[in-house]
Amino acid sequence: MADAKKPRAAFAPWDRRELPGSFTVEETAKRVGHYKWVEMRLFEALGGWVPTVPELDVKMRLGTHTYHHAWHADLWNKRLPELREMNPERLTAPANDHIVEFFEAMTEPEAPEQTIEKLVGVYRVLIPAKIAAYTYHLNNTSTITDAPTIRSIKFILHDEYEDWTNGEMLLQSLIETDDEIERAAAQQIRLEKILLKAGGIVGPGSLGGESQASAETVGAPA
Amino acid sequence: MKKHNDVTSLARDSRFERLSLEDQFSDPRNAVMVGRTGGTGMRRRLDPARPGSPDRARSLMHGIFTGEIQALEGAGRTCFDFEVGTGDDEVPFELKLDMARQCWDEARHCEISVKLGEWMGTEIGEFAETTVLFEAACNPDPVLRLTGVNRALEGLAIDVFNTMREFGAETGDPLLHFCEDWMLADEVTHVKMGSDWLRRLTEKDPERRSRALEFQRVVDKLFSGAGFRGEEEDSTIRLARRFRELAGFSTDEIDEISELSRQSRDEARARIAQRALTEAS
Fold first, then answer.
1. Most CB atoms closer than 10 Å: which of A198, A202, B81, B84?
2. What are phi and psi of A179, to 5 degrees?
3. Global ipTM
4. How far does B214 lie from chain A, in Å, by closest CA?
5. Given 1.20.1260.10, 1.10.10.10, 3.50.4.10, 1.10.3720.10, which CATH number is that of B48-280?
6. Residue B80: what pLDDT?
7. Looking at A207-216, B47-56, B193-202, which range is the least confident one?
8. Which residues in chain A have Cβ-Cβ distances shorter than 8 Å to B78?
9. Which residues pair with B230 in a beta bridge?
């Protein structure tokens, strides 16, 4: 039987979590508000497209994914007050005008013949950009102080990877001609250019770099 | 993408045939039913002992399938059509989340219905599709839309799934019984959502609540047509009182639907009798 009085280290030898992280509480709240705005626009768009898509398998898949992104929006909505933002609506905002322009362009295709354009916007441009921004956040935030955000990101990334795979497979099964390859590529290029101007889904600094206000690690011992 | 689409926006592949409710009701083949239904012209309970019941069950399953597609489409549009806010044309954030959840549920119901249809020996497009459900889901007032869809039509789904569940048990089809039981659980949740949001959104607006309930009555009556749904022993679809109570319907409200169904059945009987008289003279 183990000795109940024997002292043990507070952190097990395999637990390598650290205090320092790249984001303050305020920066995290701002970023989370942008995430919520993006997840909302995405689930609304997917839901709105459901009746306009004639392919039955795509229609049902969009219905499932609508809920995934709504659930992500709900996770972020619940996280905001925990980050001292008692009015979550205040921070539920796009990072800049270009990200608004991106969503307008992404949701422009409406006709039943435009399923490829609809799916390209979501599964070849937006979701990869979301995965990048979430992964950057996951890898740079404090693994101890910001554990609740990390937990949410991990759940979200699980959905994102699965949805990305689903969407890409739908696209590959829909694209059958050279013309359709060109349509898909044209839509991707158009949207990538707007997203580049936006700087990513949460604006410049989505993946760190010079635009990240507090590039230095916060909380590192002097 | 523009807000507030109408029924013409529903995209379907080439297997689907659309039929208006008027065309469905005025189908001359309905006259054949008079001979098969003891002269009433009205369909009877799904009875496994009757020779036509497998075909009727397949037809009903196809109707469930197309209804699930439209329920998915309607919930999707409700996510998109309304902004978050407190105005009459806006909705709370949590309502949108509920509708997104309903999208997932309805997508699963589509999947279940396709597989059950195959299991029962039918295929997509074998029967025509009517679009009344989606038409109710186009109402520009979110409260009316939710009341018409989540209380009237999802309420009808409770009755339909319970009937099919019982049919599965009577015919010794455990897969049908199992799947209908799961879908029934989801429908109770959807109706409860509708009941809760109706109460919350019209708490200080009794006039809007009464308009929403009136819209629900219209939809309820439409689907009680010719004794299709009721509490009589031989109604095609039996009113599922216990599950409706779980979903937030009061006894008075269920009594009212039962009465609407009875009226609708009496009106249908009178029409048939009048037609017989006219033809005889």
1. A202
2. -60, -40
3. 0.91
4. 27
5. 1.20.1260.10
6. 98
7. A207-216
8. 47
9. B238
